[in-house]
TrEMBL record:
InterPro entries in UniProt: Beta_helix, PbH1, Pectin_lyas_fold, Pectin_lyase_fold/virulence, SCF-Subunits/Alg-Epimerases, TAT_signal
Protein name per Swiss-Prot or TrEMBL: Pectate lyase superfamily protein
PROSITE patterns: TAT
Region (Disordered): 31-51
Source organism of the structure: Symmachiella dynata
Molecular functions (GO terms): lyase activity
Keyword tags: Lyase, Repeat
Domain Right handed beta helix positions: 234-362
Length: 452
């Protein structure tokens, strides 16, 4: 069942295998922490239990999926999941998605050391329309089943988002589960609830899910396919829970040449995920965030993408650090081109085209918790930030108790008339701000400095 993939160059193959095997230059040369002086691995062998040093195999397992003429034939989430699980069980390899339209009623769950590669724009994965139903009976936190009202429209195998109000404090509770068995309107869940779904909280079940989802996986590559969220037929789903691609607690993930479009939520969202690379992707016409490097994510690399007509182009969430956002086209996003805030420090936003943002080109958000939570030590350099906001729009807005921010070498322009527009707006409590070699043209106020 091993098949060579035409068009995959030796360099591409090696790049993937280094990712899939967890190999790294530091490990192979013996320069890992605490290993200085250890002989380098020059001729690795496959050794039982060793997931660090492995040969650069010329060929690994590949399974093809498609509506016809494939090893696994079908056009829904189940056949895609079967391929991922099969390859993962044998230690990793490639799932090749042939041309076709694949409709999903559940997320395709990613697995470690699996590469998913489509056939370019001819491989389209689209979410089925969402629908919702009320729960008809109470379920306690230790239960593993729910009972839905009649006419719910759910099937065994469907992903479901369960939502309710917390009976004690009124907060919103959100659970993602899968229906695995049923009797009438009673459905068994793949996992226990761990939250109370009492009728007093008006609980509902909704057909909302990501198209691809990963939790606690590593060394995954997704390439050359299109994910369509079917926005007009789906309810909004918060980017902390879903998106065309949603990942939680993952490491070493690469998305390359992937289109994520029309999701009623985020295009690509990753939370507490480290060393995520998003390269040459197109995230467009999503209701909320084009790219959502989320809470606690370290060292994201966002390079060469097109982020168009989303709510926000790139949203640095909480505690995103040491990231690179470079050479992206960030255009016509309805709120902000780039937004950066709570504890997002030591990031570089460089050489991007940030065009026609609905409110602000680059926003440094206020964090009311104080100075320790502000996005310090970030650099915005060599970007083209053009035509930001409406009549009172701002190209670069620096808010809160920021320190050690560099705005350098940017072309900041307004071509629609000066109006009441501002090039750079500096808040009252900004410290150690470096404005260097920026070209600012066409605004009624080039720099509005409100520092005390």
């Amino acid at each position: 069942m091993t098949i060579h993939i035409p068009g995959l160059s030796p360099l591409d193959r090696r790049s993937f295998l280094f990712t899939a095997s967890g190999l790294g230059a530091a490990v192979l040369t013996g320069s890992a922490q605490g290993a200085e002086g250890r002989p380098p691995v020059t001729s690795p062998r496959a050794t039982s239990g060793d997931r660090v040093a492995e040969p650069d195999w010329e060929e690994r397992l590949t399974v093809t999926v498609g509506p016809k003429d494939a090893q696994l034939v079908g056009s829904d989430d189940k056949v895609l999941q079967a391929a991922v699980d099969y390859v993962a069980r044998l230690g990793g390899g490639t799932v090749k998605i042939l041309p076709g339209v694949y409709k999903t009623r559940s997320a395709v769950h990613l697995a470690s050391r699996v590469r998913i590669v489509g056939s370019g724009p001819d491989s389209v994965i689209i979410k089925e329309p969402s629908h919702s139903a009320k729960l008809a009976e109470d379920s306690d936190w230790y239960d593993q089943e729910v009972t839905l009202a009649a006419g719910h429209g759910f099937r065994v195998g469907d992903a479901v988002c369960l939502r309710t109000k917390n009976a004690d404090n009124g907060s919103n509770e959100v659970l993602k589960r899968t229906f695995v068995a049923r009797s009438g309107n009673r459905f068994k869940l793949d996992k226990g609830l761990r939250k109370n779904l009492w009728l007093s909280g008006k609980p509902t079940a909704s057909a909302l899910h990501a198209l691809f989802e990963g939790e606690h996986v590593e060394n995954v590559v997704i390439e050359n396919l299109t994910l369509d969220g079917n926005r007009e037929n789906n309810e909004n789903f918060n980017g902390n829970y879903g998106g065309c691609v949603f990942m939680q607690d993952c490491n070493n993930i690469t998305l390359r040449n992937v289109t994520t479009r029309n999701y009623n939520g985020d295009g690509i969202s990753w939370q507490i995920c480290h060393d995520v690379v998003v390269e040459n992707c197109h995230s467009h016409d999503n209701a909320d965030l084009g790219l959502h490097p989320g809470s606690g994510s370290q060292r994201p690399v966002i390079v060469g993408n097109k982020l168009e007509r989303n709510g926000i182009g790139v949203f640095f969430c909480w505690g995103v650090k040491y990231g690179l956002c470079e050479k992206n086209l960030i255009e016509a996003n309805t709120k902000y081109g780039v937004s950066i805030g709570h504890c997002d420090t030591d990031n570089l936003i460089r050489n991007n085209d940030i065009l026609r943002s609905g409110r602000v080109g680059v926003l440094f958000r206020v964090d009311e918790r104080g100075k320790n939570f502000a996005p310090h030590r970030n650099t915005v350099a060599d970007n083209r930030i053009i035509d930001s906001g409406a009549e009172k729009g701002v190209a670069v807005d620096l808010q809160g108790k920021l320190e050690s921010i560099t705005i350098r070498g940017n072309d900041i322009r307004e071509t629609r008339g000066a109006g009441e527009r501002v090039g750079i707006q500096i808040g009252k409590q900004i410290k150690d701000l470096r404005l260097e070699d920026n070209e600012i043209q066409g605004f009624s106020t080039q720099v509005s400095d409100n520092r005390e």
